[in-house]
Amino acid sequence: MAKRDFSMDRNPGIDLVQQAAEIGSSSAYISYDLASALFPKSEVILSDRMLSNGRQYLRAIVQEIETEICMIAAKDFGMQQDTIIEIGNSGRVHSYALLQNAGLLEGKALLDNVFTSVQRVELGSRLLQKMSQADLESVLTRYLDDEDASIADAAMALLVAQSRDNAGPGSFQAHITNLPAEILFAMTWPIVAALQKLSGDEGPELKKAAEKLLGEHDEGVGTQNRSARLAQLIDQAAGSEQNLHPMHDGIDLFLSRLARRSGLSDDQLVLFTAEPNMVRLVLTMRAVDIPEDQALSIFSALDGGGQSLTRASYGEIDKAQALELVSSWSTNMLYQDAQLRLNAHLAGMPA
Amino acid sequence: MTASGNLAEPVRGQLDADGRLVSADPPLLRLHLHCGGYEGGPLAVPQLLSLCRLSRQLDMNLSRSVQAADEDNLINMWVEIRLHRGSQDGAITINIIDWKESPAPSTNREEPGRRRDFDRLNGRGAIRTDASLRIMALSLPGDLDAVENYIGHSLLDVLDFVEPSKQSVLVESISERQPVRGQHVRQRHGKKSFYTLSGQPLIDNEGLFSGYRFSLELDDTQVADESRDDAGMGFGQGDLISDSLFGSQLGPALRQPLGKIIANAETIGSRLEGPLRGDYSDYAKDIASAGRHLMDLVNDLSDLEAIQRTSFSVAVDDIDLVDLAHRAAGLLAVKAADHQIRIDLPDKDLEMPVKGEFRRVLQILVNLIGNAIRYSPDGSVIKLQVINDGETSSVTVRDQGDGIAEEDHQRIFEKFERLGRSGDGGSGLGLFISRRLANAMDGSLTVDSVLRKGSTFKLSLPTRLI
User: How near does any CA of chain B get to the CA of A263, in Å?
Assistant: First the structure.
């Protein structure tokens, strides 16, 4: 959760009575904050770094959307409202606090997207402990010379997308180009409403600008979509079973290829890597018949908690059982969520 | 074979504002038609349709991976949905790049449970046997007695083959683990119904042959006649090896529960009907193995009682020892392979015609080769040879085991004689029964062995003049 700054030093001019009122209303929610800290509902441990990255990611996305809307409104629809022009040129976020206080940044789909984005960064930094940045950047170049022109083309597109995302080891730049259409849609309209509130302008320009932004969005150029396309092409090529490894393909392509083979989504696999001992990832690897040596190596490349996967524990996983479980995880997510909720009060009941 | 779209030329289609596919490149049009659409009609490819709907709902362009099925092919596509604005508002262009077709994975893997259900639904009977063709489970619609009487018996003991089908054809198919189709058979006892027999070999999850699943379709063209031939004789009262008091009364009472134990334990152990933890699967295999041992003992005791009866007799068939040696070795090939034992057989082109009863000679040879496998070191060779001695012809089974001391050469043919061995699955009756059977066919069964130099068992039968 983002920290709010109520220090008197920072805002010496603000009326103490007003501050007290604000703090009072926010403190009414202290039990919610404490409950989520004391009684987390998932087994995933969210480190301070991930929380910080999550905040940074959300702020960056909100800022990019609001900036884009304001600039389109000014340039394409002639909006000359001062606040809008200032927001478009300021280089910092304005509507975040409003959206946050209104609970508009708490949608499940949005937060799932935030989580997978920061976990991808986490995985990238784990991989960098095992191989150099230069090696990591060159992993995809091998596909550039592929005799299948489609593969070479898709590899080039992915390289371009990745170079756009790279902001140094273990870090990232949030781009709305990487957002799935549904997430961008779900974020844009609350931001439009917040901008209207901030500017006091309820004219049609901001809405038109939002429509234009959404209409021009091409999710096909996002990194994950490009890696999904390359994974699809590689998997159809002969001998594609080999070399399925993050150190061979990089995180994005590795996840996309494993997702295709297992019937799961990239985001599910990202979640698996954050779970204790990455047990669901291990089961997925067993289900898709990844050989023992390769699985052990993949585990060690992705592990960030000093855990290790032993030959014996991987070997004794019953493949049929693993397949059955993976297949159950690949069913409709709404159905899985509903099952989870319905069984929430029954300790130990499988989903 | 994989067909792919040209990188430079995506497959295109266009929808009007009402969702009708107003133009489409040939591959997309074909898929649309195969999905039940018609030219100029609403887009009928479900996966593309849902993308177009989402695109309209969000008022956004989409780019996503899509998989569709067209007859026997899977089509992997990368689809770009582009919304038109302005004068063509509401229209959608579909660009499909990377159109790749590949054969769909086979889905006709036979689920044993489903197969059984279909058999029942069609009024067919079903028989499940183990690797040595012993009946482990069966269902014959309208013949409950058969269930009680057949469990534990060899399939070849309970069915007669009706011309033009021949028992030898079935045995050959089975020894080569081939499917069996359209064999005409008749119950030897009970209702004596005629059936058409078909079967599939069962391979367990470890890739090993574990028996057969047969289906029996009632043959209405032939009329069953319970009173024909051996009228009034129940199972176990006729010419079977196990036609004895033990075979007719105590035997069935033991065989049926044992057969169920073995069949279910094998099904569990082989994971034929679902996943199971590794150690549980091993327990199930242990149960099946112990059950088979008990079943062998029950059968041996039945045979023992039968051959000791004065009325015991054998049929005289025209048989060939080379042929039977190959068939017996085929039935035990899996067991031999488990111990990396090679069975060296006489050339298939050789002929060694003799007189004897087909299934009993087969029984003797299976017993001799089975013993050789049991008492030979892993990785050794068992050699079968045929010899013509004029009036008699013989087949010898030579192993590289520990051998038998000369003073024990006669003892091993005595009842329950194990030479102090135990725990190896033998009952001590096999050689006794085999020798009695050989003698009943005017032949002999002898042993030649020296300690630590292996053993050679020799089955001799009267030569058949051609």
Answer: 12
Q: CA–CA separation, B113 vs B108, rounded Å?
A: 14
Flag whether A257 is in a domain. yes
Domains of chain B: 3-103 (3.30.450.20), 112-307 (3.30.450.20), 317-462 (3.30.565.10)
Indicate the length of chain A as a whole number.
Answer: 351
Q: What is the span of the domain harbouring residue A311?
A: 244-331
Return the residue of B nearest to A213 by Cα: B60
- Counting the structural domains of chain A, the total is 1
In a domain, A61, yes or no: no
Write the burial class of residue A143 (CB in 10 Å: 0-12 exposed, 13-18 middle, 19+ buried): buried
Q: Compute the distance between CA of residue A245 and CA of residue A302 in angstroms, rounded to an integer.
A: 10
Quote the CA–CA distance of B141 and B119 in Å, as a whole number.
10
A272-281 core/surface letters (b: 16 or more CB in 10 A; e: else): bbbeeebebb
Coil, helix or strand at residue A229: helix
pLDDT of B268:
77
Q: In this complex, do B65 and A214 lie within 8 Å of one another by their Cβ atoms?
A: no
Using an 8 Å Cβ cutoff, are B20 and B32 in contact?
Answer: no
Rounded to whole angstroms, the Cα distance separating B11 from A57 reads: 37
How far, in Å, are A257, A280, A300, A307 from residue A293 at the CA level?
Answer: 18, 18, 11, 16
Q: Tell me: the pLDDT tens digits for B335-387?
A: 788 888 899 999 988 889 999 988 788 889 988 998 899 888 988 999 999 99
Residue A327 tokens read as 């297949």
> In this predicted model, what pLDDT tens digit does every residue of B45-68 receive, in sequence order?
999 999 999 999 898 999 988 888
Q: Does B209 touch chain A (CB under 8 A)?
A: no
Cβ-based contacts under 8 A for chains A and B? 71
Please state the pTM of the whole predicted model.
0.55
Contact A236 B65 (CB under 8 A): no
By the CB < 8 Å criterion, does A56 face chain B? no
Is A263 within a domain? Answer: yes
